[in-house]
Specification:
By secondary structure, the protein is of the alpha/beta class. It has helices at 11-20, 25-39, 54-69, 111-119, 161-168, 185-190, 225-235, 279-294, 310-325, 344-355, 358-371, 376-397, 423-427, 434-439, 467-480, and strands at residues 49-52, 80-84, 122-127, 175-179, 194-197, 217-222, 265-269, 298-302, 403-407, 443-451, 454-462. It starts with 10 loop residues before the first helix and ends in a 12-residue tail after the last helix.
Length: 492
């Protein structure tokens, strides 16, 4: 199998190929590194990577081959992948897409990073992202926007846009992402991938640079549900170093992929199909849901009445937490520091003023405002109450249904620059994904078709800790459809 098409192999196929001796880890790692050089870099490149760790990757691949020869390999030993540049990596630049961390080299690994290392996986590098994970288009990165491989004039989605574009362009078989308000599911939908945001507390947040601590969750981005299950097997862990990690039994997510899904009840919230939703989008999503009916599932209309409150609640809670989390970026301890400060005040002001981009500054200001005396009760406390209402809506819904489905995004990928001048319009891109984070539920996007040659995602929202059920349903859908096999033109 040592040919020029190795990049089209899925993660599970690469794992089997390494096991069978069809190719070595060094060969497949080199193949992907060559593709990154060819498709990602230069003026016409996709710009999905901030840092490519080629020397380290090849050294790790060689070590993986030796580990395999010694007979103590795991399914992941020697498999190449990429990390979103929000996970701290010992000795490797970790920027969060910001000038503020443009020189930050962590002295430790995030737990998720360490989990992959333990398995012998080979990291190709760190992927581009919206600055500090704030954005829906990957245009706020200090290192330039990422292009969508399906149409380079369009955005790949955010904030995990680099990870999504890299997987879609076959520059890496899979990549890690994080999701605070849709940052895995939205780019997965716009790039034709399978992306999963697990239940809050499933994956350790230690060493994952925080944006909004009560919302952030790491998760897999892959082409297939099977690959996402293999990733989650590694990513999910209880971690004493993370106070938000929950000690809940972790199943083998690949073990139940082939279970029969007949009899499952799918809830369709009427709030996810408003009159304003593009007709083609509504039809594509409903057609995808109809595939589940053919496999014996039943569909039931439900209501999540607090859905419309998700955006205003989120854009109070998330900026408030971001304001607190980013206060540590002060030009003193690590990261960017301004030139020749006059005094400490000048150091703080100019370092933060020069180090942060516009969107991050906007959210810090909003967050500081809603936490300030006189406004805390009016905004922050109220938003937390709304958050509870949103959670209660879902709890009631899951008494009647096994899973909830609807669109991920209001439309397919839009053109770069189209919405960057209007923050509110950009925020509306997340209207179907935010409620899932506010409630701490697992959410997923799977490829469900195309509109005008651009991918569309079907969103699945599950009950707490039901990732295995969601992956099973996604895998069965992918066994009956081929949307997940479609690739952008020119990357074959």
């Amino acid at each position: 199998m040592k040919d020029n098409n190795m990049h089209n192999l899925t993660l599970s196929q690469i794992s089997k190929g390494l096991e069978n001796g069809d190719f070595t880890s060094v060969e497949i790692t080199q193949h992907f590194l060559n593709r990154i050089k060819q498709h990602d870099q230069g003026d016409n490149g996709i710009n999905s990577f901030i840092t490519v760790t080629d020397t380290q990757a090849l050294a790790d691949a060689k070590a993986a081959d030796e580990r395999r020869a010694a007979g103590n390999a795991t399914p992941w030993t020697g498999v190449p992948f990429a990390h979103k540049d929000i996970f701290c990596t010992d000795g490797v630049l970790t920027t969060c897409g910001s000038k503020m961390l443009g020189n930050f080299i962590p002295p430790y690994d995030a737990t998720v990073v360490d989990n992959f290392k333990q398995q012998g996986a080979v990291c190709l590098g760190k992927t581009n992202m919206d600055e500090f994970a704030m954005g829906s288009s990957n245009e706020s990165s200090f290192f330039g926007g990422v292009k969508n491989p399906w149409n380079k004039e369009t955005i790949p989605g955010g904030s995990s846009g680099g990870s999504a574009a890299a997987v879609a362009a076959r520059l890496t078989p899979v990549a890690t992402g994080t999701d605070t308000g849709g940052s895995i599911r939205q780019p997965a939908a716009l790039c034709g991938l399978t992306g999963l945001k697990p239940t809050y507390g499933r994956c350790s947040r230690f060493g994952m640079i925080a944006f909004a601590s009560s919302l952030d969750q790491a998760g897999p981005m892959a082409r297939t549900a099977e690959d996402a299950a293999m990733m989650l097997n590694v990513m999910a862990s209880f971690d004493e170093k993370d106070s938000t990690s929950i000690d809940q039994e972790i199943p083998d997510y690949t073990a139940t992929l082939n279970n029969d899904i007949a009899g499952k009840v799918i809830g369709i919230p009427k709030e996810f199909f408003p009159d304003s939703l593009d007709g083609e989008m509504a039809k594509t999503v409903r057609d995808a849901i109809a595939e589940f009916e053919k496999m014996g599932c039943t569909v039931k209309e439900i209501s999540l009445p607090s859905t419309d409150l998700a955006i205003p609640a989120y854009y109070v809670v998330a900026p408030a937490e971001c304001s607190a989390n980013l206060s540590r970026m002060d030009g003193v301890r690590f990261g960017y520091r301004c030139e020749d400060p006059k005094d400490v005040e000048d150091l703080y002001k100019r370092s933060r003023g020069e180090g942060f981009g516009d969107e991050v500054k906007r959210r810090i200001m909003i967050g500081t405002y809603v936490l300030s005396t006189g406004f805390y009760d009016a905004y922050y406390v109220k938003a937390q109450k709304i958050r509870r209402l949103i959670k209660d809506d879902f709890v009631s819904a899951f008494e009647q249904v096994d899973i909830i489905m609807g669109p991920v995004t209001p439309s397919p990928a839009f053109k770069a620059g189209e919405k960057s001048g209007d923050p509110v319009e950009m925020y509306m891109e997340d209207k179907f994904t935010l409620s899932c984070n506010l409630a701490g539920l697992p959410g997923m996007s799977i490829p469900a078709g195309q509109i005008n040659g651009l991918p569309v995602g079907l969103q699945m929202i599950g009950n707490y800790w039901s990732e295995a059920n969601m992956l099973n349903m996604a895998h069965q859908f992918q066994s009956h459809t081929d949307f997940h096999k479609q690739a952008p033109q020119g990357i074959e």
